[in-house]
Structures are given as C-alpha cells and as structure tokens.
Amino acid sequence: MSYIDMKYISTYYYANVIQGVIEDPSSYLMNLESIFGDSGVLNYIEPFKKRSNLHAFIEFIIDSLFWEQYSKLKISNCIDRSHFDFDNPRYITPLEHIFEEYGVDHLSFMEWWNDSEEDILEERHFEDYYQELVLLEGYYKVIELLGEEVFYILFLNRKLLQEFNEIFSSYLNMCDGDDFAMEFVKENSLEPILKTDYKLKRVSIPSWVKRAVYFRDRGACTKCGKDLSGYLSLENQENYDHIVPLNLYGFNDVTNIQLLCKECNSKKSGYQRAAETKYQSWYKK
C-alpha cells in the first residue's frame, strides 16, 4: 500500500495559491503562456501518466513561488534565532526549513556564504544562493514532495479539477489549425493519440486510475449518489467519465475522471455539465 508522509509545511498555503491561479488564470497569464503557449500544451497529452498534469502544474507554481520568495528576502527575516550570536549571526532561509523537515540533503545558506568571497551580506546574496540551490537534485525533490501533498488536497475538489482541465482544453483547442502545432505533432509522432482536429483519442482507463477515482468518490455516482460498490445492488454499474469530455478537448488524465452511474453517464453523453460539489460527510450529525 502506498502512503504519503504529510508534513503540512505550508501545504494549505500553496494549495490556496494554486486554487487561485486555476480559478483566475488571467492573473497568471504570462506564466501559463510560458508552458502552454506555442503548442506547449502538446507536451501534456500523453494518456494517464501517474505524474498527472495537475502534479506538473503544481510543481511549476511552487517553483515560481520559491523564486519569487527569494527575490524579496530581507536579511532580518533570515536571522537564525535558534543560534543567535550578535557578533557572529547565522542565517537560514525559509526554504531550508522545508528541506530539513523533509530530510532532504541540501546546501545551506551558511555553507554557501562561508565558501563565497563576499565580506558584507546583502539581500542580493539570497538570490545568488538560490541560483546555485536550483542546480542541485534536492531542490526538485523538495518540490516533488511538497507537490504530492498539495495534489492530495486538491484532487478531492472536483469543481476545481473541472476548472483546471478547462484551462488545458482551451489551449489544446487553440492548436487546431496552428502550423507550429502541426509540425510539433509530426516531429514527436503524436498522431496515434490525436485526431486531425487535435481532440484526443479515447483510450482504455488504467485500473490504477479507476481505483483512485472510485475511492475519491467513495464508490457512489457523483451526480445522483447511487451506490456503485455492488454491495447494495449488482444492477448499478460504475462508469468512469471524463469531466471535460474528449469531444470538448478534454484530457486522458486522472484529474479529468469522475465516477458516474450508467444512467447519469448516458444523460451527460458528450456534453459537459458542472461538476458536483456534494460530498458524503465523514459522520452523521
């Protein structure tokens, strides 16, 4: 069985920021264009990767936030007060606390500073330290671990998952008729998974995706609440449905799948409906 060691190191802060970006992508448009623009979205169409599109998106945003944080660090905020010595102060940056909590080896700021040829500490030195930190394997390991915690929280939010997949689908839709996209498809041999209008072809849903979605949706139709466990009725058949339909440029991604009963799935057909926001409570009140 697979477990996540949840450290909850500002996990909800990062989840909240990422939710804000998904709900209002216009405020983050330039950054999104850097990964999705010029047909960059085609880098994300491989079907049902375990490192889902949401994982990649979360890690991109966390990386951006780390850089933004280091570009604004003040010396007074980085004094290591646990080892305070007025004559010989030590400094520790916020990201180092995250490294330590996850137990990931890293280059500390004080190690970097002692190896440098600088004499007087200035705030620009935190940016210089960050530029060296990002070259180390541990930096991306921390982003991956923190990203997994944020994914665990956001994967429960079907409404947010719909909005997230709508962002992806809008960029994929823009590829239709784009010469650069056409060349990208040929160079990367993407024809087997794409239709000529750049809609993704239907593929069989892996068992690990079904299992993840089944347990997230607690074995019940997300529309009508019908039990699909097979314990109450063998007639109720589970259907794994694309939240944003493939017909509307939806993706074959674990974040774009929900559990429906046969009847609700038939009513939806290839059209999109608002994701359900009703969830079973943990206990009766």
Keywords:
about 280 residues; mainly alpha; two-stranded antiparallel sheet; 2 strands
List the helices and strands and how they pair.
Blueprint: H1 11-23, H2 29-36, H3 53-71, H4 94-102, H5 109-115, H6 124-133, H7 137-154, H8 158-173, H9 179-187, H10 207-216, E1 238-242, E2 257-261, H11 262-268
Antiparallel strand pairs: 1-2
Helix pairs in contact: 1-7, 3-7
The quaternary state of the protein chains shown equals single chain
* Strands, count: 2
Mean pLDDT: 91
**Count of helices?**
11
Silhouette: globular
Written overview of the protein:
The chain is mostly helical and 285 residues long. The protein is built from eleven helices and two strands; from the N terminus they run H-H-H-H-H-H-H-H-H-H-E-E-H. Helix content is 44%, strand content 4%. Helix 1 packs across helix 7 and helix 3 crosses helix 7. The protein starts with 10 loop residues before the first helix and ends in a 17-residue tail after the last helix. The model has no long low-confidence stretch (mean pLDDT 91). It holds the Pfam family HNH. Residues 208-266 form the HNH nuclease domain.
Structure summary:
With 285 residues, this protein is mainly α. It has helices at residues 11-23, 29-36, 53-71, 94-102, 109-115, 124-133, 137-154, 158-173, 179-187, 207-216, 262-268; strands at residues 238-242, 257-261. It has eleven helices and two strands, in the order H-H-H-H-H-H-H-H-H-H-E-E-H.
